[in-house]
Design brief:
Blueprint lengths: L9 E2 L3 H4 L7 E2 L19 E8 L10 E9 L10 E5 L5 H6 L2 H10 L2 E5 L18 H4 L4 H18 L8 E6 L1 H12 L6 E5 L14 H13 L1 H19 L3 H8 L9 H20 L16 H6 L8 H16 L20 H8 L23 H12 L7 H5 L11 E6 L17 E6 L17 H19 L2
Parallel strand pairs: 5-6, 5-7, 7-8, 8-9, 9-10
Antiparallel strand pairs: 1-2, 3-4, 4-6
Helix pairs in contact: 5-6, 7-8, 7-10, 8-9, 8-12
Length: 486
Amino acid sequence: MAAHMKICTVVVLLFFVCFTSSVLLKSKKIQKNREVSKFSTSDYNYKTEYLTQKVDHFGFVNQDTYQQRYLIADQYWDPNGGPIFLYTGNEGDITLFCNNTGFMWDIAPEFKAMLIFAEHRYYGTSIPYGQTAFKDPKKMNFLTSEQALADYAVLIKHIKSSIPGSSQSKVIAFGGSYGGMLAAWFRMKYPNVVQGSLAASAPIWTFRKDADCDAFDRTVTGTFRKSSSTCVDNIKALWKTLNTTASQTGGLAKLSEMFHLCKPLKSADDVTTLKNWIVSALVYLAMVDYPYPSKFLAPLPAWPVKETCRPILTPLNGDNLIIGMAKAMNVFYNYTGSTSCFDIGSGDIPNLGISGWDYQSCTEMVAPSCSNGKTDMFEKSAWDFKEYTNGCLKNWKVKPDINWIETQYWGKNLSAASNIIFSNGLLDPWSSGGVLKSQSDSVVAILIPNGAHHLDLRGSNKADPADVVSARNQEKKYIATWLKST
């Protein structure tokens, strides 16, 4: 879930997952890496199906419908009541999450499970009213977490009534980032449908009026500090250096050349865009600080934060600091060396539904975001809910309800919940809003000190740290227990 712009898209990597992403879920604008993969291929075999869903599950006047896409793999499934593993799709194309949730595929043969990856309404191809909906707030009104959860409940009912042998199958929900939040909430709201949930990197306590708005940036800073405190000091000094250089005669042209920008900087607003572009990379790098090379958001090396810090490991200032930071940006934006120049305003991550999440962040998914420039490495930036609201009214003609998520999903009182695993990698900035302590014997927290954004949901890798291997083993034990219970 980037740039310190308070009236902006909240991304979750997804997020997200997304996404959560998404992806990524933060009240900050995330810029696009021109090398980002299109995720067009998959190592997994599944069928693509569609289900006719109501646009409005909770009213009786609107009888409109839409086609929800879902992916299904039954090659490991025991048709004599084998379990159903459901991924609660988040803010993006469901194939992205299917192809990056290897843990479900890894354990499906062991549990003889059917796999279903359900696409979230208004993302991917599952868009009520088509693309024109994003221009009409009245048609966007049905983009809520509540409607999405109802979609998933109806989908499970459909599966059990249409696939022989599945009527008594128990359901386990999986999700990462916003999808992890949905997995947890699915168990809380529909315990008659789902037996238990694995909510990985699910920052359910970020979306509260009294949330610590600087916690995310402090965690990003902590992840970088783990690689090098000097790296953090240099990044902290960068913002003033950029401002100073930009204010000098010829400074904008100089910065444009140093960062190899496709279009020259021409104004103070352009300098802000440049800083946002840098912050986006730093946030993403902390989120996907995986122990092996990956292409989840972009082609990246193992432990990309460490690689990013390499050009700025010694104290730097002035032009040397800017040059070092420009080299550091190549890790995220040009690791393969194929990009000749950077278009810092080029748009959003492919396959992540930025417009949809921007709307959700302007209605119920409000994440207070700020930085103080002292305990974090970013420019000081205040959280201003009034300004945030004005931006939402301008863009979507809606007013955000900052209290709704806590009201609807119980806030920090999870005493009535059961059978939920909240897993968090402590390198991941979203862990700052996650459930880090077990709430009961059946609502448990699993911490992964060397894990980034829902690393435990990714497929097994020989470079996995011992703590993520241990986490997955614990998760399997809980799932086995849930499936044996009546």
